[in-house]
Each structure stands twice: as C-alpha cells, then as structure tokens.
Amino acid sequence: MATEFGIKVRQLREEGNLLQKQVADQIHVDIPIFRLCKIEKGPRKAQKDQVELFAKALEADSEELLTLCLVDHSFDVVAGERLDFKEIPLVSKHIKNHIDNNLKFANGL
Fold first, then answer.
1. What secondary structure does DSSP assign to 57-82, as a single string?
2. Is the pTM of this model over 0.85?
3. Which pLDDT score is estimated for 92?
C-alpha cells in the first residue's frame, strides 16, 4: 500500500521531470534507487531525518513532507488495532498539549 509521503514524493518527482536515480543522487545518502522505488510505492518508509533531503531534492515544502512522513509512521502504530476512532481526538489533544508545553519551555516560560 502506498504511503502519503511516497505518493507525494512520486508526484513531485514526476512534476519535476526527474528520474528516481536523479533524486537518489541528489539526496547524497545511502538510498539506492530500489529503496526510493519502495518508498514511492509503499513497502518502505522514509526516515524522519531524510525528509529535509527529499524536500531539497524535489524543491518541496519540508513541513508538508514531514507531516506526511509522520502521518505514515503514526498510521503504522495503530494499523491493525481495533479502534472506534474515539481515541483520535484524545491523541490529538495530547499531542497539542505536548507541543504547547515544549514551546513554553523553549520560550523560557
């Protein structure tokens, strides 16, 4: 199953008329072309530290790509669980509180 990040990477690559090899070469990390293909098609997920490299190579918004990458990783955590989706708002609230607390700490409050 294709991931949100993989779909977006492929879309950006194709819009930029780039070959997978060109993107892999621009990333300058150990991402052989077969891994890039697997990232685009879904069996493999990009690592968080690779997102900025993808954004630069594809001239894309790094925040959007990071969001999609985190969505994919979050989905993996709950995939296969028996959820009725009442958990989603609770998780969202918990994440927002965590972010708010980190911002307060970073701003010295």
1. HHT--HHHHHHHHHHHHHHHHHTTS-
2. no
3. 80
Distance separating alpha carbons of residues 8 and 71, to the nearest angstrom = 12
Rounded distance, CA 56 to CA 95, Å?
27
Domains of the chain and any CATH numbers: 4-81 (1.10.260.40)
CB 95 within 8 A of CB 77: no
Return d(Cα 48, Cα 46) in angstroms, integer: 6
- Count other Cβ atoms within 10 Å, centred on residue 13: 20
The residue type of 3 is T
Pair of tokens at residue 20: 């997978």
> How high is the mean pLDDT of the chain?
84
Tallying the residues shown for the chain, one arrives at 109
